[in-house]
Amino acid sequence: MSDATRDIEALIELMARLPGLGPRSARRAVLHLIKKRGQVMAPLARAMAEVATSARECAACGNIGTADLCDICRDPKRATGEICVVEDVADLWAMERGQAFRGRYHVLGGTLSALDAVGPEELRIPRLIARTRDENVREVILALNATVDGQTTAHYIAEALEGTGVSVTSLAQGVPIGGELDYLDDGTIQAALRARKSVQ
Ligand SMILES: [Zn+2]
Fold first, then answer.
1. What are the DSSP E strand ranges found in 12-120?
2. Which candidate, 34, 40, 104, 174, has a CA 20 to 30 Å from the CA of 128?
3. Ligand 1 mean position to 7 CA, how many Å?
4. pLDDT digits over 14-65, tens only?
5. How many angstroms separate the alpha carbon of residue 31 from the centre of ligand 1?
6. Separation of CA 164 and ligand 1 centre (Å)
7. Where are zinc fingers of the kind C4-type found along the chain (predicted)?
8. What is the pLDDT of residues 108-163, one digit of tens each?
9. 94 C-alpha vs ligand 1 centroid, how far in Å?
10. Which residues have CB less than 5 Å away from ligand 1 (the ion)?
C-alpha cells in the first residue's frame, strides 16, 4: 500500500467511527469528499479545525457553543424563570427545533444509573439546584427520555427541589415509552411540552 493510499484508508477508518456511518458509507463519503475537494473537503477541514479548537461547554447550562456562555444563555429574550432539563445536547437541539420553549436549558450530561455507577455528582444536578436559587427559577421542566434511568433521574430532581417553591413539571403525552427526544418530530415535542404535568 502506498503512503497516499494509507492516508486515505486512515481517513476512512476515522470517518467510520462517526455515529450512523459504517465502513461502507465512510468509504463512499471519503470518495465524495475527494472528488469535491475544493467545494466540500477543504472548507469542511477548515470548519472542523476551527470548531475543534473553539467548541466548549457552556459554563451555565452545559450546551455546546464556541464561547463561555452559549447563545441561549446570552439571549436576553429567553425567559430566565424557566429551565428545561435535558439529558444530552442532542435533546436540547431537538427541543429547539420544536420552537415551543422560550426559556433556558440545563444539560445533565446523562442520567443517574446504578448499573453504570452514575450518581448526581457525575451529572450537572448540583449545578441545576444551584441555578434554581441563583436565577430565581419558578419552574423546572423535565424533558428526560422515557427510559427507566430517565425517569429515575426525574424523580431524584423532583425530590431534591421539594419544598423550595420551584414547581417541577415533565413532558407529558407524546413521548413514547422507551422513546428518545432526538427521534421525535417537532409537532410531538411541541404537544409534549404544552401538556407537561407536575411531578411533585
Ligand atoms: Zn448555556
1. 56-57, 64-65, 82-86, 104-107
2. 174
3. 38
4. 999 999 999 999 999 999 999 999 999 999 999 999 999 999 999 999 999 9
5. 37
6. 23
7. 58-73
8. 998 988 888 888 888 899 999 999 999 999 999 999 887 788 888 999 999 999 99
9. 15
10. 58, 60-61, 63, 70, 73
Distance 149 CA to ligand 1 centre (A): 24
Q: Give me ligand 1 centre to Cα 17, in Å.
A: 28
- Encode burial over 42-67: b for 16+ CB neighbours within 10 A, e otherwise: eeeeeeeeeeeeeeebbebbbbebee
Cα separation, 163 vs 90, whole angstroms = 31
- Whole-angstrom distance, CA of residue 192 vs CA of residue 171: 5
DSSP state of 81: S
Q: End-to-end CA distance of the chain, in Å? A: 64
Phi-psi map region of 2: left, alpha, beta (phi>0 left; psi -120 to 50 alpha): beta
